Amino acid sequence: MFFIVGVFCLAAIANAQRCGNILHQHNGTVTSPNYPDAYGPNEDCVWTIPGRGGSVTVTFKDFELQEGTSGFLGLFGGSCDYDYVEVIIGDRSQGTYCGTSGPGTITANNDIQIRFVSDATTNAKGFKFQFKVDHGGNTPCGAHLDDNFGTVTSPNYPEDYPNNKFCTWTIARSQYPVTVMFTDFQLEDGSFFGGCSYDNVQIFDGTTSLGKFCGTDIPAALTTTNGVRITFKSDSSVGERGFSFEYRKDVPSTQAPIKPTKPTEKPAGSGDGSGDDSFLF
Question: pTM higher than 0.85 for the full model?
Answer without folding.
Answer: no
